[in-house]
Amino acid sequence: MRSPENVIEIRRLFDRELREHARPDGPGVRVERAGPVVRQMAGPVELPEGVSLRPVTDAAGAELMARAHERAFSTDGRRLLHQVVRRLEEAPEEFVAVMAVDGDGEPVCSGRMELYPGTGFAGLWGGGTVADWRGKGVYRALVAYRARIAAERGYRYLQVDATDMSAPILRRLGFLELGTTTPYVYRPAR
After folding, report:
1. 121-129 and 107-115 strand pairing
2. Greatest extent of the chain over all pairs of C-alpha atoms, in Å
3. CA 53, CA 113: separation in Å to the nearest integer?
4. Are 158 and 123 spatial neighbours (Cβ–Cβ below 8 Å)?
């Protein structure tokens, strides 16, 4: 039978031996300590050979981004195209868009980030990878790219509405689920 004292002592032992003195849990991972905080930090995210990241800064880039979105989600990318072009024109300081392209310049993944001035939050949106490129670190690289920009601009928190496909990747990157959203499409009665 376990007593409350026993449970507390085991937790103290666990904290001391496995948390305070944590070892890297993978290749390229380093452990940082700042007072009572222990962090595991991964080395840079590497893209597959021949793949590069490109910021989206104009309508031509937005078209490629929309094409990646269409290929990743099998949906029409026109709405995204118009949205990205509008954000780039109206508020480029509050918006970041990026895509990954293969060696032939074909878009294989894209994502965007909304920065919310006056808050500590930035939102990651639309991250999607073409099926043939999934599982190769491309999505992770887009998350890392946007997270780095958010941190450089002083944003402490990233918000993501994740699909079941991207949620496990985000969890492995250290994201925590704080709540859920349920999307609806409103269609007025006729």
Report:
1. antiparallel
2. 68
3. 15
4. yes
> In this model, does residue 128 exceed pLDDT 70?
yes
Q: Average of pLDDT values for 76-97?
A: 96
d(CA 74, CA 53): 22
pTM above 0.90, yes or no: no
Indicate if the pLDDT at residue 1 is higher than 60: no
Q: What is the pLDDT of residues 12-55, one digit of tens each?
A: 887 788 778 777 765 566 777 777 777 777 676 789 999 999 99
Average pLDDT, the chain: 89
Distance, in Å, from the CA atom of 68 to the CA atom of 108, rounded to the nearest integer, reads: 5
Q: How far is CA 64 from CA 14, 28, 31, 100, in A?
A: 50, 33, 38, 10
- What is the C-alpha separation between 64 and 109, in angstroms, rounded? 10
C-alpha span between 64 and 67 (Å, rounded): 5
Phi, psi of 3 (to 5 degrees): -100, 160
Neighbour-count burial for 114-133, b at 16+ CB within 10 Å, e otherwise = ebeeeeeebbbebbbbbeeb
pLDDT in the model for residue 28: 60
178: number of Cβ within 10 Å: 7
Give, in degrees to the nearest 5, the angle at Cα 184 between 80 and 61: 10
Place of tokens 């670190």: 137
